[in-house]
Design goal:
alpha/beta, 157 residues, four-stranded parallel beta sheet, Rossmann fold
């Protein structure tokens, strides 16, 4: 049996025709606004505008919003943008683990690409150093949406 591999060249990513929604958590909004800007800028550079941008209170609410969007069946990919900064209690681990698991569940349940741009950091300096995660998520969403279309036998838009 021949080993077939699908491989996209990241330098050739094309978002034109893709419908990608972004969901931003407002907790630590001074960070998540920058993640949103980074993601939006990268999508535009790849040839698409966000199909929709939603805002939710925090990282724990991201999976529910993603799930509601995915249920509509109108989108090719989703991006979750958030920032959780470690505090003095176990709450940090709870929020990080629960939000990440929820994001992954949406992707698997609905068969849609979901890029996880929820920063989980020790302090604000680490978060600011990772703002390009927004752009990375845009590229991941485009690449995975294209892969899904290819595997379903759909023609490029």
């Amino acid at each position: 049996m021949q080993n077939a591999r699908l491989r996209d060249d990241p330098a050739k990513l094309d978002a034109s025709g893709l419908r990608i929604a972004l969901v931003q958590a407002r907790f630590n909004v001074h960070i998540t606004d920058q993640l949103l800007e980074s993601c939006t800028r990268a999508l535009r550079e790849l040839g698409a505008e966000p199909a929709q941008v939603l805002s939710v209170p925090g990282a724990l609410e991201l999976p529910q919003a993603l799930d509601l969007l995915a249920r509509r069946g109108e989108l090719d990919a989703l991006v979750a943008l958030g920032c959780v900064i470690r505090g003095d209690t176990y709450h940090f681990e709870l929020v990080c683990d629960t939000s990440a698991a929820g994001v992954q569940q949406v992707a698997l349940r609905h068969g849609i690409a979901v890029a996880n741009g929820i920063l989980t950091v020790e302090d604000e300096a680490q978060a600011l150093a990772r703002i390009d995660k927004g752009a990375e998520c845009a590229r991941v969403a485009v690449e995975m949406a294209r892969l899904a279309r290819t595997l379903r036998g759909e023609q490029a838009a």
